[in-house]
């Protein structure tokens, strides 16, 4: 009986080392995992710090780029405003003041609602686009390459040698040089006259008519719509002419006006739109 009681009390003590070893192993494993987790936490914290620093650096770069963008926008608004002012002045010089008044001005906001630079830029672009649409129907520049041999006004007639009024300008160039429309319009008359030779007349908006004389050939039809810069014929020596050239006239509400003013205006416009 005593032997059985001794066995009964002795076997749990035999399990104690095993349990202790198991628990020790569990604690070691948990400590190891805790160590690894702490390492990962420290690494993540370092990455977070690095990302925060990078975020601040990127934000600083964004702020700098935004500042540069605003400066560029302000410069662009100033340049566009200057061009818009010059365009308005040019239109007034050409007698198109009513179109200038109709379009109005774009102000900086003094005495009225504030306009952000972006809005100013957008409005100025729209205004310039409207100016250019008006100017497309105004005869600007020369109809062909060459030099002006005879100007608008009174001169000695090359045939009669008497003083006579010259209603346009003569542009001397190579025979067959392309002659282009100086504005959008509609061909309303063409043919042959003794004085003008082969000619084309184009009616434009705002009361303008352009005349192109002494052509060797025209390639448009009556009633045809033409665009500014479109070839309408070729320089020749037909009609009452002393050599290859184009007689070019501008008429405003039926009255001849000096084309030289509009040729110079065309140069100014080309400079403004660069």
Protein described:
With 274 residues, the chain is α+β, with helices and mostly antiparallel strands. It is 48% helix and 23% strand. It has helices spanning 2-93, 97-103, 117-135, 259-272; strands at 147-150, 153-156, 163-166, 169-172, 178-180, 185-193, 197-203, 208-218, 225-226, 231-235, 245-252, 255-257. The protein is rod-shaped, with a radius of gyration of 43 Å. The protein contains 4 helices and 12 strands, in the order αααββββββββββββα. Helix 1 packs antiparallel against helix 2, helix 1 packs parallel to helix 3 and helix 1 packs antiparallel against helix 4. The protein has a domain at 147-259: Glucose Permease (Domain IIA) (Distorted Sandwich). The mean pLDDT is 86. The termini are far apart.
Summary of the model, kept short:
With 274 residues, the protein is an alpha+beta fold. The chain contains 4 helices and 12 strands.
Could you give a short account of the major beta sheet?
10 strands, antiparallel
The first-to-last residue Cα distance is 119 Å
Q: Briefly note the CATH topology name of the domain at 147-259.
A: Glucose Permease (Domain IIA)
String of helices and strands: HHHEEEEEEEEEEEEH
Number of strand elements: 12
Beta-strand fraction estimate: 15-25%
Report low-confidence residues grouped into runs of 5 or more.
none
- The CATH superfamily of the domain at 147-259 bears the name Glucose Permease (Domain IIA)
The CATH class assignment of the domain at 147-259 is Mainly Beta
State the secondary-structure class: alpha+beta
Number of discrete helical segments: 4
Q: Helicity range of the residues?
A: 40-55%
Using only C-alpha atoms, the radius of gyration works out to: 43 Å
The residue-averaged pLDDT reads 86
Label the overall shape.
Answer: rod-shaped
